[in-house]
């Protein structure tokens, strides 16, 4: 039996994606915790993250991933470089020697991983996915994050790690891909 993996994500739409799509398709032993709810962001709150890490350890998670969007909405700081964001985040939350805690960067939003079902999506964002679904459906109003995810599920398309480097990196870290794509 595969060991449990913990995941701390930024918000509701990320949690929905991992619980409703990722878990059944990739890793059933995934425990997902969200750092905030709509309108709040606690992925930058050290006490919140430490609390989540402790809770996931109590659930016997052998690895705990903290997923940060490259285009995080939690701070006015914008990063284009994954390494700089990761270094900044680790120093802010004071994660240093916890071998079981891995900070992983999603470029740019989790919706970019959904866009990978159709095209190369490393530089795509939530707005790109919105535009795609809104134009396909001739929708006049803007789709909410929840509606975006429902449209993605309804498309019956699968995410494609070959179209997104951060997705590929994450799947390699989870060890759900064969070793060859994880060079």
Can you describe this structure?
With 183 residues, the protein is of the alpha/beta class. It has one domain (4-178): Rossmann fold, CATH 3.40.50. It is 43% helix and 14% strand. It has 7 helices and 4 strands. Strands 2-1-3-4 form a 4-stranded parallel sheet, sandwiched between helices. Strand 3, helix 3 and strand 4 (101-106) form a beta-alpha-beta unit. Helix 1 (12-25) packs parallel to helix 6 (145-155) and helix 5 packs across helix 6 (145-155). It starts with a strand and ends in a 9-residue tail after the last helix. 36% of the residues are buried.
Nutshell version of this structure?
The chain is of the alpha/beta class and 183 residues long. The protein has one domain: 3-Layer(aba) Sandwich (Rossmann fold).
Give me the secondary-structure topology.
Layout: E1 4-9, H1 12-25, E2 30-34, H2 46-58, E3 61-69, H3 82-93, E4 101-106, H4 110-115, H5 126-137, H6 145-155, H7 165-174
Parallel strand pairs: 1-2, 1-3, 3-4
Helix pairs in contact: 1-6, 5-6
